[in-house]
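Recap from last week: sequence in, structure out.
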Amino acid sequence: MELPYAEPYKIKVVEPLGRSTRQEREQWIKDAKYNLFNLRSEQVFIDLLTDSGTGAMSHHQWSEIMLGDESYAGSASYFKLKDVITDLLGMPHFVPTHQGRAAENVLFSAMISEGDVVPGNSHFDTTKGHIEFRRATAIDCTIDEASDTTLDHPFKGNIDLNKLESVLKSHSRQKIPLCIITVTCNTSGGQPVSMENIREVSAMCRKYEVPVFFDAARFAENAYFIKIREKGYEEHSIRDIVREMYSYVDGATMSSKKDAIVNIGGFLACRDKKLFEKVSMFCILYEGYLTYGGLAGRDLAAMAQGLKEGTEFSYLESRIGQVAYLGAQLKKYGVPCQEPTGGHAVFVDAKKILKHLPKEQYQAQTLAIELYLEGGVRGVEIGTLLADRDPKTRENRYPQLELLRLAIPRRTYTNNHMDYVAVCLSNIYQRREQITAGYRIVREAPIMRHFTVELEKV
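Predicted structure tokens:
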């Protein structure tokens, strides 16, 4: 008999979870103005709002916390992280930042000007927010297959080369500061980008003299998918795949709260020394000195260790396997999701479940609220609220995908928790026709509104 799969770790510390009644949750979500970001953590039973900074660190990472060098300049922890980034990613220059969007802020301050265009694959909210804040335009060049949640395509994060070349041809080089490849592509459902596509995008951008950067929050998960899905990489190690991925790009921003499995931190890495000198000024201005970048030395040390652990095959197999497990449970109950399952989350197709609600009533947000009411599970809307308004017309942008993201924290929950989440969604799916109204906006910020938006029932 073949041995069943077992996680490559054991549990050392536990944190109690508090249960609540539906009546309590109804009051709490009302007080939160129907924005799940406004809930207190103790009001949530299973928290799948994000996988960012919410994972469990290993005993080796906690050891690094104790070894952290808190020197303002020249910290030993900085050089420990620098060695890992140089060896793993092959990037000679880097600056640490306190998180991924800070790295974007530093990079875009150095590279993006008003009127620029930035092509890429479904830019995430903070990326697009930083671009549009500078009065530039993010242009989505993702393949059309990504918008069909029923299609089983192995690399739905891929950039459509025809769409990309159309952007590169129709704008002057001076107006295209960079192209961004998000690995894995969060907004399209945590979907990976193939090595072939990375290579082809890099070659095309070099032809037009446009630098290519990764949004690399989940680069290790992307490498795992290349190993198991792309022909010719079956025998390659994750780290060898990572090195090849990075060999095709000029730099990367990273939220280390994902694939480096830390609670806080990020970095910007690049090849060009002149760009490094330029971003260094903005790093000092916004984040702190170059060898700490808004972080404590202990966080730098934990990040260095986390990058090593996050690129181990056994860890990735377990992590992505749990996401696939939840996806399989939902599919068993008939709940429509983005297929195939992504790397860090299951994306539930709210447009299919609540198709009887007008899109103006925020179908994915409505489903997210229903999930919280059903069982105290907090997910997040990846749909119209996140898509925000067109910066010129101020009209709602209605994306092709209206998704409820269930982001799984790393090494945190068991499959029993996944079973609980699946049954909660199954119950909602069975009574979906009874959900007869959604929500309207009462108050919103002018940019990245979904974090602080206030809603009321229609």
